[in-house]
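Troubleshooting log. The previous run stalled partway through. Resubmitting the same two chains, unchanged.
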Amino acid sequence: MKPRTFSTFSLMIAVIMLLTACGDSGTPATAPTNTAPAAAATQPGPAGATDVPATSAPSGNKTKVILTTWAGADEAKELQVVIDKVNASATDFEIVHQPNPADYYTKIQTMIAGNTAPDLMWLSQEYVANYADNGAVLDLTDMLGKMSDMPAAKLDDYYPGTLEVARYNGKLWGLPWIAAPVMLYYNVDAFQKAGINPPDESWTWDTFKDAAKKLTVKDASGNVTQYGTSFNGWPPVHMFIWQAGGEVLSADLKSSPIDSSEAVQGEQFYKDIVFSPDYAVPEAVIKEQGFGEMAKAGKVAMFFGGAADDLDYAHAKDPKNADLKIALVPKGPKSRTTFAYTAVTVASARTKNPEITTKALAALTDGIHHWKVLAPRKSLATVDVISASVPGKKDSAPIIIKAAEDMRGFRNVPRQAEWDTIFWESFQDLLYHDKGTAADLAKTARPKLEEVLPK
Amino acid sequence: MTDTGSWLGDYALTLSHWLLVAGAVAGAVLLTYFLLTKLGVKRESATGIALIMPWVLGFLIFSLFPFLASFYLSFTDYNILRPISLEKLPPLVGFRNYVYAFTEDPNFWPSIRLTLLNGAIGIPLGMAGSLFTAMLLARNVKGVGIWRTIYYLPAVLPAAAMALLWRWMFNPSNGLINTILSPVLWLFGWDKPGWFTDTNLVLPSYVIMGMWGIFGTTTVILLAGLKNIPSDLYEAATIDGAGKVGQFRNVTIPMLTPTLFYVLVTSMIASLQLFTVALFIQTPRSAGQFLNVYIWQQAFGAQKMGYASALAWILMVMTLILTLLVFRSSSLWIYYESEVRQEKPPGARKRGLFGGLRATQQASGAEGTVGGGH
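Second attempt completed without errors. Output:
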């Protein structure tokens, strides 16, 4: 290449460099309306999470707050309507939604590692303690305390069992935006044919088990044409342990008393039913035909599902779906505690404007509480609010509200993923596949579980 | 995360970043050229070296740096949720990650076992099937071009699509495989096998699924190898009274060994690195996991990036050792014509497994230029 050609090329490069240098606006041109407040200095120590500012930049008078969720295309459209309303009434922030429906946690973890975390993100309950312990999310305790004029920041309005999943080490790391209690769905037609009264508040474990047996129907050649119930790891066995008065994790998170007599009672109840052809769908059949599909097709007389599953009015959308109704879960020896699938919105520990971000979080959470069923707040647990959110749930709303009184989420530890794996591999999987008694398996698994608990 | 507030601003910002990178790369090219010419390197050589700088930069940034970083991280307790910087590096733990993998991790050895067994069973079967298919496609029959195209199609299918397809084919109740098998199963009164759900059938299922690899790239490579075998070798073998089996054993296989060697090495590495398909198909945990999937789970599920890095390096060393073993064994079973020409007369030194072919070559006087073809 001739020197002249190279010189021309160099000049061109210089022009490009000059242009790109002008175009780089990584540093905000306008100062944020709220610069990092004192609250930022109070953030927890792990990993020095607050030493590098990261995310939002102002847009005009409003600070941009980036929100990342796992919402799919349809859900993202609905959420955008909620966000638009929140943005319209906000004076100092604007939420920008960036959905990441595929491989969500891999992506947000990579973003956190790369110091490009979004300001706000959704977390399923089992991730909260882990993210908090590693300094990835913002401690909201003090800031939310100062925003008690915002409806979603009034913590005493939340069902305690749902807010608990957002706490770790005595601090609050997020706000629950959904809490879907486990309900008992039942096929009206199957109950009528069997001459069994529909499930109600009088139902106990025994009533449920008897009904499941009676509702398992076989044809002349012995083939099952309808199963009484279906367990496939869902609902989590934890729910029955709680109902019997046991716990899988103690309140101080220091032990896993799954071998207590109460816990074993719950585990044994589950073991007796799961995959047993006398009561429930065998494992291979569930895997072949699908849990939800069998229910919709009317092949299962009753099963557990979340309040947000919308199966209670699935027949209204498609007449081919079985006519299912919703009931409270049967009562255990000690309580009718039901598991609540709970998800939380958290803020990144590296958000540039913690106060604005927290304010946006509270406003967004209130917006979502009027969109998703069930809002985890007592003041919003009304038939009117539920039917305004999902009209099809009008008939089921009173029962869902009743279930909400007994709902709770998991207790979680920082190494929750490992704890869950051990619980599954060393206990639950063996229990379901009849590899020992509940008491023996629990006794063997407990030390392994406790190895990963906080010391 | 930066956001200017308008789509035009966002676009300009993104474009500026791209241009900045392009400018930096171009600057590196120019700098390299000027430095080399100043050092007295010929202008032509300097231009060539300067023009490969984009690739060199890409390799340094996206391959070499992560490679070295993962080695360092394998000796740390790095959690992906805790961002690292030069000022705040993750704590060093020495060889703890490696020791834990070999001595304490209950999932490590089952993962190694499944990964190795899948390769040990699947690769020979796959290579035999590929060779058989390649021999069919090497025949000069009508429409062979179309057949070759059809048989290559699996190579262009995305791994995820392939995984979904096989998941359906192995579906116990309405999958293609059990539907085909159902008369036999009915005859013997056997239940339909739950391929990916039965712990004992997970490995066979993966091996069967791996047969899919018979078609596509491997077959095409072997086909090219077959077409490069000089026809006069077959003619000489025929004159010597060799039948089809004799020709296959004494001409085809020896002449194909360099290609088979290449296919073996690449198949082995691909088998050890199996990931996408294994990620898409859920199997019982007790059946074990492929090592690459386990690494991914440790990195992003348990967030133990340090431990995952150690596992990745164990996989790398394992791959290296196995590849070296195959290379070391090559002198025993690979036949290179160029070596024959340089060797002493037959009988002076017995080397390798294919004395028969040498005799055929001597008899035919074939120069046997690889690549001569038909």
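Takeaways: The interface with chain A takes residues 1-5, 9, 12-13, 15-17, 19-20, 22-23, 26-27, 30, 33-34, 43, 47, 79-85, 88, 171-174, 194, 197, 284-286, 300-303, 305 of chain B (CB under 8 Å). Residues 118 and 206 of chain B are 7 Å apart (CA to CA).
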